[in-house]
Amino acid sequence: MNFETRILDITKNDEYEKYLYKCLAPMPFRKYRKRRGYLEAAIPKGFHKKILIFNEGIVGQIEYAPPEASYYPIIGDNVIVMNCIWVLRKVKGRLLGKQLFADMMKNEKNADGFATVALENHWSPWLKKWQMEKLGFKSLDSVRVMHKLKHKGECFKIYLMWLPTAKNSKPPAWNTPKILEGVSCCTSHPLYHQEKTKLKEILEKR
Ligand SMILES: CC(C)(COP(=O)(O)OP(=O)(O)OC[C@H]1O[C@@H](n2cnc3c(N)ncnc32)[C@H](O)[C@@H]1OP(=O)(O)O)[C@@H](O)C(=O)NCCC(=O)NCCS
Q: Does the pLDDT of residue 200 top 80, yes or no?
């Protein structure tokens, strides 16, 4: 059996186009409007999506961009924002997440640092703060929120996470009112904002 690990940049690779629109979640592939608009604007500004192939199966992915092309309202000079990283649990313990992460850092070696968001006490298993810390991020700031429509009464925290990679790098900031709007261009994201809600903000500060 071939246990080779490969990381492929699929940003401009038609063969894997569906993974630009969906992630590893078993969701149908749909070129939905919000994602298409996001990709069209983000790709020319330095967005990348990569998949990790292990033992001939797609088991991981990472998505990142400069702040102006990220779907998080993070602001920073010479910073790269990681939208998402995901390695399937069935292949855990093989340092594949670290490989994907290292690949991004190598490809963006001129960045002063990397930023992302993480969650604590969210009902989903996604983007947990301790997992982002395992990759090297530390928290800079947080906001305590509640979803307006789901799990009413349950509060969770969203963290701005930062990993500086240059001496004297300037930490990024974020636009917290904007974070309350959620993420509209990834249907699997724990902060996904469905267009049909007709709300401007799906989260409220608590
Ligand atoms: C975070 C993530 C990418 C890490 O990838 P991974 O392949 O599981 O982890 P790795 O094998 O690369 O390990 C990375 C580090 O975390 C540690 N680690 C991983 N899982 C751990 C666990 N359950 N408990 C303790 N430590 C753990 C490893 O020991 C390693 O630490 P080290 O550098 O000190 O050795 C992966 O767990 C993941 O995809 N989680 C879900 C992320 C998510 O929510 N994505 C959004 C989907 S919408």
A: yes
